Amino acid sequence: MKNRLKVLRAERDWSQQDLATRLEVSRQSVNAIETGRYDPSLPLAFRIADVFGLTIEEIFLRTE
Amino acid sequence: MSGTARPWLLTSPGRWVALYFLSVVIIAALKLTGAIESPVGFILLAAATCLLLPLARRRPDGCTSRAMADYNRRIVFSNLGYVLGLGIAVTLWNRYELSDALVFAIALLPTLPTFGVIWAMGRYLAEEQDEYLRHRTIMAALVALGLVLALGIFWGFLEMFELVPHVWAWWVLPVWAIGLGLAQLWQKVRGA
Question: Most buried of A7, A10, A38, B33 (most Cβ within 10 A)?
Answer without folding.
Answer: A38
